[in-house]
Amino acid sequence: EDQINDVQDSWQEVDPDEYSYEELVALGGVVGTERRGLSADTLASLPSVTYNTKDMQDGNTEQYV
Known about the structure:
Strand order of the largest sheet: 1-2
Structural class: alpha+beta
Shape: elongated
Number of domains: 1
InterPro entries: AtBBR-like
């Protein structure tokens, strides 16, 4: 457990604003890449459903996908 706390403490001391470009590239190599969201291919493969709504006041119909 002490080893885990030491690692967490050392990461809290990292300030990327003070790093050179080369140091940031090296840090990225150690830490890895974070990806957010799904790829376009994965999104395209998901099923979709169309909902029709009707506005009761003016009778307009709208579609939502």
